[in-house]
Design brief:
The complex is a heterodimer of chains A (75) and B (161). Chain A is 31% helix and 35% strand. Chain A has 75 residues and is of the alpha+beta class. Classes of the chains: A alpha+beta (75), B alpha/beta (161).
Chain lengths: 75, 161
């Protein structure tokens, strides 16, 4: 269960990452942010974002052109 | 933590205002301390009344794809010498950027400032073009090349754009 959901559909690079960072900043450690995006580049970008910031990519999937991510705030 | 990015931004066209601001905001989101040294035409991006345009002339690889269309219109470079073509191409580009959900320069600049990207404006350029500090956005530090080296020394990544 996500604690917060971010709708990043229709947004292009780097907006999904910037919005996600902003949302995570306002959350508590251990909480989960769900993100919906349509930018195909976001798949690799969220992986890289988590690898570099220490946040945990708990879930990443795609269905009908909508990418869904769950990131646990860990840093 | 403790990573640092230093960028020199020298261009003032709409298309070339994007790379420094996209990289700066993204790096800030990746917990970098970010500094941008704006010099020469880069200062146009910081003007309060900025009206950035693309320059299709001498930029022959730029695809001309009208908004709502997917195919490129073949356009000889010489066509861009016709008065008004620059404005037309700039408006087309702005509409395209919006259509594709790409942030505007105004938005990226605001996000950069919000995420504490440090902006240094080249004082020599300000003098060169007779700009006034009041022409440019607030919160800038005015300095020269020596200040850039202080910032760049110890930076993990240094980019010249």
């Amino acid at each position: 269960m996500a604690d917060k959901t971010l709708d990043a559909k229709g947004l292009n690079c780097p907006l999904p990452i910037l919005r996600a960072k902003k949302a995570l900043k306002e959350m508590e450690l251990g909480q989960i942010l769900a993100i919906e995006a349509t930018d195909p580049g976001s798949a690799k970008d969220f992986e890289s974002f988590c690898a570099q910031t220490g946040n945990e990519l708990v879930k990443a999937s795609e269905a009908a052109g909508v990418y869904y991510y769950e990131i646990k705030r860990a840093s | 933590m403790g990573k640092r990015l230093a960028i020199i931004a020298t261009k003032g066209t709409l298309d070339m205002a994007y790379p420094p601001l996209i990289l700066a905001t993204t790096a800030a989101a990746l917990d970098y301390e970010v500094h941008i040294f704006w010099t020469f035409y880069g200062l146009q991006v910081l003007k309060k009344d900025r009206d950035l345009k693309i320059s299709p002339l001498g930029n022959p690889a730029m695809p001309m794809i009208p908004p709502g269309m997917k195919t490129e219109i073949p356009m000889p470079n010489i066509a861009f010498m016709i008065p008004g073509m620059e404005i037309l191409a700039s408006n087309m580009m702005k509409q395209k950027l919006k259509e594709k959900g790409v942030a505007s320069i105004d938005d990226l600049l605001e996000m950069a400032i919000e995420s504490e990207v440090k902006m240094i404006a080249c004082q020599m350029t300000v003098d060169l073009f007779d700009f006034k500090h009041s022409d440019l956005i607030d919160g800038l530090e005015y300095a020269g090349a020596a200040r850039f080296f202080e910032v760049a020394q110890g930076a993990d990544i240094v980019l010249f754009i």
